[in-house]
Write a structure and sequence with these properties.
The structure is a single chain. The chain has seven helices and eight strands; from the N terminus they run H-H-E-H-H-E-E-E-H-E-E-E-H-E-H. 24% of the residues lie in helices and 16% in strands. The longest helix is centred in the last third of the chain and has 13 residues, at 194-206. It has a four-stranded mixed β-sheet with strand order 1-2-6-5. A two-stranded antiparallel ribbon has the order 3-4. A two-stranded parallel sheet has the order 7-8. The chain is globular and about 55 Å long. The model has no long low-confidence stretch (mean pLDDT 89). It has 207 residues and is of the alpha/beta class.
C-alpha cells in the first residue's frame, strides 16, 4: 500500500540490521530520519505476556544511523512505556531497572553530538479524532533549536475553546461514512465476550 501511494520511494523489505545506511544514502545528506520501532513489547496493552528482548532492542538502530550518516533531525515515535525500557529477565522487564536502557540510549545520542528532547503528546490536541497518547523524541545535530508543535484543539468546555483560541476536539464520527454498508460486530460466528457485549450495550444507551 505504501509503495502504491509513494511509487518513487525506495522500499526495503528486510531486517533493519541488514540495511547499510551508507549504502542506502549513497553519499547524500540526510535531513530527517523517522523511526517507529515495534511497540508491542513495551505497550501495557500486551498485559502479562512475555516480552522479547531483541524486539525491544530494535530502537538501537537509531544509533547506527546517527553514527554513520548523521541525519540533521531524528524522530523516534513509540508508546509512552518506551521510557521504561530496561533489562529483561526470563521474559519479564526487571522493575528495579526500569528506564536504565532508555537513559543509556538518550545519553549515547547526546554523546555523539545530538541535542535531545522527548515528550508525550496526545493526537487529539492537534486535530486527530483520537485520544491516543504517544511518546516522541526529537534529536538534532545542526545547532538549531528543537521546536514542539503547539496544541490546536482542546475539550469543548475548556476556556480556550470557549474564547475561540483553540478548536474543540474532533470525534471519530466526523470521519466515518455511516452510509457505507458494514457487517455488524454482533453477527460474528463466535460471540463477543460478555464484558465486551456489556460495554457495547452501554455505548448504545449513551447514543
Amino acid at each position: 500500500m505504501h509503495k502504491t501511494n509513494h511509487p518513487f520511494t525506495e522500499h526495503y523489505q528486510e531486517s533493519v540490521w541488514d540495511i547499510d545506511p551508507k549504502e542506502v544514502c549513497r553519499g547524500r545528506k540526510v535531513g530527517l530520519a523517522w523511526f517507529s520501532p515495534d511497540c508491542k513489547h513495551f505497550s501495557k496493552a500486551k498485559g502479562g505476556k512475555p516480552v522479547d528482548k531483541k524486539i525491544r532492542g530494535l530502537a538501537w538502530i537509531v544509533l547506527r544511523w546517527a553514527g554513520t550518516v548523521r541525519p540533521r533531525v531524528i524522530f523516534v515515535e513509540n508508546v509512552e512505556e518506551f521510557q521504561t525500557w530496561g533489562p529483561v529477565r526470563k521474559g519479564k522487564p526487571v522493575k528495579s531497572k526500569q528506564g536504565e536502557t532508555f537513559e543509556r540510549f538518550v545519553n549515547q545520542l547526546k554523546d555523539i553530538g545530538y541535542q535531545v528532547e522527548y515528550r508525550e503528546l496526545k493526537a487529539c490536541d492537534y486535530g486527530a479524532p483520537t485520544i491516543r497518547k504517544r511518546f516522541f523524541l526529537i534529536a538534532r545535530c545542526d545547532g538549531k533549536p528543537i521546536v514542539w508543535p503547539k496544541p490546536t484543539h482542546a475539550p469543548a468546555d475548556s476556556l480556550k475553546v470557549k474564547a475561540g483560541k483553540l478548536k474543540p476536539y474532533r470525534s471519530a464520527a466526523e470521519c466515518i461514512d455511516f452510509a457505507l454498508p458494514c457487517p455488524s460486530i454482533f453477527e460474528r460466528k463466535k460471540p463477543l465476550a460478555i464484558n465486551t457485549q456489556t460495554l457495547f450495550n452501554m455505548h448504545k444507551l449513551n447514543f
